[in-house]
Each structure stands twice: as C-alpha cells, then as structure tokens.
Prior knowledge:
Helices cover 46% and strands 14% of the residues. By secondary structure, the chain is an alpha/beta fold.
Amino acid sequence: MIEFVFGVDDLARTSFAYSPLQEAAFSLRAWRDPVRYPHMRPWLRRMRPVYDRLDRQVLDAMVTRRLWIPDCLTPRPSSARPTFAAELALFRATGPEVLAAGLRDAYGDEVFPAVLSGDPERLRARVADALEAYWTGCLSGEWWARVQSLFEADLAHRGRVLAEEGVEALFAGLDPRLSWDGQRAVLQLGRPGNLGGWWQRSVPVAGRGMVLCPTLFARGAQPLCTPDLPPALFYPSRGRAVLAESVAKQPLDDGHRPLVRLLGAPRARLLLLLAEPASTTELAHRLGVTAGAVSQHLRVLHEAGLLTRTRAGRSVRYRRSELGDGVCGGG
Length: 331
C-alpha cells in the first residue's frame, strides 16, 4: 500500500490536469497489446497505414513487454491543459541521461532493444521526432478532439462530485483501491498484484499538492512520485467506451419516437447524447456532421431551455438541463 500524507494546505493545492504527451506515449501501449484497449481498436485500424510509415522501431521500443514506458514520456502537466508542442519542447530540452535512465528503469531485467543503444543525445532527438510525427499523423486531429472532450467531461464530473459529496467520494470514484482517512489526512492506494516492496511507501505531499490526471490507458490509479515534484495520480477516465462509438448511423429506438416527433431526429439524438457534457467539436465528430450543423441545433435546444452550457478553457460544453432530462425521460 502507498500512503500519501497530506499537510494542512495540500488538499487546497490538489488539482486536475491532463497531458497530450502522456496520452500519446500511453497510446503506444495499444499497438503492443490491442486486446487490452478495446476502445482503441477502431482507431488502430484507421491509423495503421500512417503508423506503419513512421519510425516504428523506436516507437515500439518505448513500450516494454510489461507495457511500461519511461517516466519522462508521461510528464506531470505543467498547467491544467498544456499543449503537445509545449510538452514535447520540454522533453527535447531534458538531458539525454534522463531518457536513458527512464528506459533502464522501464526495461529492468527485460532484453534491451538494440535500437535504444548508442549516443543518448541522438536517441533523445530520434524519440522526439518519432513522437512528433506520430502525433501529427495519427492523433492530433479527430482522435485528440474526442479524447480532450472526454477529459473535459471527466473533470466536470469530478468537480461536481467534490462539490456535492466531498473529498472521500472524489477519491473513491477515481479507483476503488483509493481510500481517504480524514482523521489522519492520508490517501491510501492499495497494491495491484505483486509489485514487491516498492508499493510499501509513505509519500509526504509536503505542501506541494497533488496532480490528478485522467487517462484512457490505465485500469486503475497509477502513482508517479519523485522527491522534487508534486505527487501525481493517473486514473482511468470516464467514458472511454465512447471513443469506439460511431453513433452517426445508429437508429433511435422505438422508445424515442415521441422525442423524434417533437424535436426531429438530429436534435433528439443530440439531446440523448448530452447526458454528459460535450463540446460542439466532439458532437460533430461523433455524429459525422459539420460543427456548423451541430451548432445550429445546440442553439435551438439551448434557447428552448433543454441544455445548459459552461465554458471550460477555450471550449464551450453543453449538457442536458433538468428540463432536458425530463423530456428524455431522465435517461
């Protein structure tokens, strides 16, 4: 068990954030073990022709047989919503020995691929170039738009849980193995399987706060602890199955006929989708239509009082209102 010991101000300094570089690196796990990540399979099929033209030797080598990845490729976000370009620039500026040490730690007693040997500085540049090409060719468009929308919805949900149910419910909702001891101000994370003595630790948060990061590529909370930085927990984002969803051609069932007669099929489908917050871009991707068409329908639904909207960073997110829930029958 790992214990995170909170000081007086640490809960107030605990924040949520997400990292595009982290998700790019974690997504490489899906190429090695697609069965483990069913929500990625449709995307892997679509990305395959581009991925096969990239520097696969080095990209594949970033993931070990145990699906471990060097820590320097899964950074703590420096802000709530950093850009991939900013995070990659930080990686390019790190000492090449950081990548070398991270690879040694990740591989442990596994066979070290030959592609990772040689000059560390050249390797760092090659890894950075490969990741940039992978991001540009496979991830930066529709995939990241949908993932970012899922993360924004996840963060909005966690904020509501914290406001309405408190910190104990917040942590328990991230992973059932997490438990909050309010009397001692200690967050406990139970051990998954046999990870040896490393998992028996007490980590003082010590005025640094904690960073909580949603990801599509974890089955449970994963800690990241280094002495000079705030501790971080990566946890499974809500709504991962939606990533594999293609709703554009799915018919509305018979139970939705009254809603279709009232609103028309496009607006009925939008209202049903908005049980969880989503942006115009995400809805357009999921429905296979233009953002302009979605925006017109959202405006009408919002003016009718069926939707609420809030700004999250640069994005406006829509969600069914109480009235909208009632029109949909609460579901």
